[in-house]
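Supplementary Methods. Inverse-folding protocol.

Structures were first reduced to a discrete structure-token string of length 406. This string, shown here, constituted the complete conditioning input.
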């Protein structure tokens, strides 16, 4: 249908609907458009579809929940079984099995919730001057006002008028400037927010020892460490959460995307027991919540999805995917087709040493969807991808790189 009703996210708004690729179906790692072209989903939609498309178990769980109770809120005094069970499942797999879980709809809502929690916690302690949120220069944290304010990339922050005050940026890859900031303003810092592996900023793993350094600084100065696990959570890095992969426990973390593999939007924030104690001791009403917090059908999707991740061994499979991907990148590097590569488990990028847009387009024409970020091509396939499909992906990547080599 030709129509200009829909405004696409992250798009040139004037672009005609006819120029968009209309995806009509998905099965496993494969997608099909309305012209019958098939694609390998090399980015798991937007870094999210761990279990692949068309998973019957999750679809049936959603259907069953729709039949029983499609929707109801969880504002006091109401609750529902799927929301309670999902919260239990998330904390049981985290570094804070005695923590508590707040549910939302999107990663952006989770980030804004975490930022509000951070300030609220200090407020409850009577430390109302602690408002500074520290962001990292290549961070991506969604598009609500709080998240926009803590974006690393200036392009995300500019053009919207005034954002949240009391945000300070530190360089991406060095703990020294963070130490200096804490030395100068440590008693005013509420929290540091960081993705464990930065995704949209270019798939940037942390420098060795970086998170240990941030953790130490936060603890010494009474600030909170927030991990934004929206991309990294639910097996992507070979552990349930990337804090476990890097051996550093945050005070709270956000999650979204992989919690349902995107079948229904769902997100949340997990807080540690210490934070939960403070929230629980507050006798005034907790003035934060979304209409869809604890949406039963979304939570049923999450419960079934976590079950599939577990029964198919996808957390461990991420390690094998990582090995296959690294072999592929090494071969391309050996042939001089890429400059370098980075990543781990099921999330990677290769650097072409030139703008990667043309290569991404050539790759798409060869039936693989990825994303170009500056000079890099990013990869984040469903964790059900087979070795054979990874082989197909690299064959087509090799072909696309040869076709666009300078
Ligand atoms: C690390 C991170 N945080 C937050 C978000 C925002 O999530 P959403 O687009 O679901 O609002 C994203 C989205 O890609 C993300 O990668």
């Amino acid at each position: 249908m030709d129509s200009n009703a829909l405004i696409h996210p992250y798009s040139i708004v004037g672009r005609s609907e006819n120029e968009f690729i209309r995806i009509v179906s998905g099965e496993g790692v494969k997608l099909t458009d309305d012209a019958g072209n098939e694609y390998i989903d090399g980015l798991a939609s937007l870094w999210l579809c761990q279990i692949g498309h068309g998973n019957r178990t999750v679809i049936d769980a959603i259907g069953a929940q729709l039949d029983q109770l499609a929707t109801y809120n969880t504002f006091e005094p109401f609750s529902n079984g799927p929301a309670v069970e999902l919260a239990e499942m998330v904390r049981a797999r985290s570094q804070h099995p005695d923590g508590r879980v707040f549910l939302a709809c999107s990663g952006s809502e989770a980030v804004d919730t975490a930022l509000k929690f951070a300030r609220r916690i200090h407020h409850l302690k009577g430390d109302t001057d602690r408002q500074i949120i520290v962001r990292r220069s290549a961070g991506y944290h969604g598009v609500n006002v709080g998240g926009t304010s803590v974006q690393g990339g200036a392009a995300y922050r500019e053009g919207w008028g005034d954002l949240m005050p009391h945000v300070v940026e530190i360089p991406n890859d060095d703990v020294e400037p963070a130490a200096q900031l804490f030395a100068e303003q440590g008693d005013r810092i509420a929290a540091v927010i960081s993705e464990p592996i930065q995704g949209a900023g270019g798939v940037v793993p942390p420098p060795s020892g970086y998170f240990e350094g941030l953790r130490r600084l936060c603890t010494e100065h009474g600030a909170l460490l927030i991990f934004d696990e929206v991309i990294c959570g639910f097996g992507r890095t070979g552990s349930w959460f990337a804090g476990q992969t890097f051996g550093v426990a945050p005070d709270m973390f956000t999650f979204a995307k992989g919690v349902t593999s995107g079948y229904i939007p769902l997100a949340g924030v997990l807080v540690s027991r210490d934070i939960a104690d403070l929230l629980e001791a507050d006798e005034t009403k907790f003035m934060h919540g979304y209409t869809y917090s604890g949406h039963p059908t979304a939570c049923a999707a999450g419960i079934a999805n976590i079950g599939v991740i577990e029964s198919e061994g996808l957390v461990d499979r991420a390690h094998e995917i990582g090995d296959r991907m690294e072999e592929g990148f090494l071969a391309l590097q050996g042939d001089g087709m890429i400059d370098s590569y980075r990543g781990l488990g099921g999330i990677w990028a290769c650097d072409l040493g030139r703008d990667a847009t043309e290569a991404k387009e050539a790759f798409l024409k060869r039936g693989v969807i990825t994303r170009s970020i500056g000079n890099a091509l990013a990869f984040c396939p469903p964790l059900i991808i087979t070795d054979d499909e990874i082989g197909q992906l690299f064959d087509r990547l090799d072909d696309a790189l040869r076709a666009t080599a300078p």
